[in-house]
Design a protein that fits this description.
This protein has 324 residues and is of the alpha+beta class. The protein has eight helices and 19 strands.
Length: 324
């Protein structure tokens, strides 16, 4: 496909003006990046190759002599291939991890706890009242001492999806940098990263009440709605939302819909642990509508972004990615 034609298609695709046939072509082009993977990432030098080789061999079990069928040459080859491929996939898919081991104790005398996630990591937390929380990458969830004993309050920095156990006598509250979310029993997503100037709350089921830190009511949201709160002037507005956009991160994807550069940079940071930066006003002002997945290598994601922008990128000595 010629580059100029591709640019025209991408622009129509981003604006929502593309026909069904044109959208099909662009979607297939995006998917082709995943098919171009011909080698395991992070094997840029011999030292890394040797470390990977050693890790694979350590995971290959040695056959027992009594298992005669195993010693047959065709079976040896087949089993070896399966083991090696499995070991490589285990290493590769480990780039994006989902853990479910952080379970908060239901004991009333428990101490305050803090659950954190790093880049490329998602954790599932079960609170004492059976409320479940999925914590996105680069996030912090603070759980106070005695949670559930007279109050159900947590504090979030980052992003999380809450599936709240219903209790009409004891509302569930999430505190963030500027607003408080209160529910009885529902599921919703809260995004409140310190690096972003907006806080977003999206309701998946039920009803959510939102107020500021002075208890001034801001809005009541129902299923399919989200609220955007501006930290700078403390204003907010409510829109309808597509559930997949708000909660796609739980599946290892970043779905952006008319997002600003800061939101794009946060998504890249969550997926790859890499800081994205630019001094180009066009890049900063652009509104991004695209999807990145954990299956895509960083190079593939940057190729998509820079093709849309008709810009270039480079890796700084610090490891940051700079678009120019």
């Amino acid at each position: 496909m010629k580059f100029t034609i591709l640019q025209q298609l991408l622009k129509k695709y981003q604006k929502g003006d593309a026909t069904d046939a044109e959208r099909f072509v662009v979607d297939r082009w995006y998917e082709s990046f995943e098919n171009e993977r011909k080698e395991v990432p992070d094997l840029a030098d011999d030292a890394k190759k040797e470390r990977l080789k050693a890790r694979i061999w350590r995971n290959i079990p040695r056959p027992k002599k009594a298992q005669i069928w195993y010693m047959r040459r065709p079976m040896q080859v087949a089993v070896s291939v399966i083991i090696v491929v499995g070991a490589v996939l285990a290493i590769y898919t480990g780039l994006f991890r989902t853990g479910e081991s952080d379970l908060v104790s239901a004991k009333s005398e428990m101490a305050a706890q803090q659950i954190t996630t790093a880049a490329r990591q998602i954790k599932k937390v079960r609170l004492p009242d059976s409320t479940e929380v999925w914590l996105n990458s680069n996030s912090i969830l603070d759980i106070p001492k005695g949670y559930g004993m007279g109050k159900r309050t947590v504090r979030l920095r980052g992003e999380a999806f809450f599936d709240v156990k219903r209790d009409t006598a004891l509302p569930f509250m999430v505190g963030t940098d500027g607003i408080i979310v209160t529910v009885l029993g529902t599921s919703f997503n809260v995004r409140s990263y310190p690096s972003l100037q907006q806080i977003k709350i999206a309701v998946n089921t039920g009803k959510v009440s939102i107020s500021d830190t002075t208890s001034n009511p801001l809005s009541v949201l129902t299923k399919g709605q989200w609220l955007t709160y501006q930290k700078s002037d403390k204003s907010c507005h409510v829109d309808d939302h597509i559930t997949s956009v708000a909660t796609s991160w739980r599946d290892g994807s970043v779905v952006l819909d008319d997002a600003n550069f800061e939101e794009l940079a946060q998504g890249v940071q969550n997926l790859y642990g890499i800081r994205l930066a630019t001094n180009n006003p066009e890049v900063s002002a652009y509104r991004y509508t695209l999807t990145l997945t954990a299956r895509m290598r960083l190079e593939e994601s940057m190729r998509v972004i820079c093709t849309i922008l008709n810009k270039h990128y480079k890796e700084e000595e610090t490891g940051d990615i700079y678009i120019y």
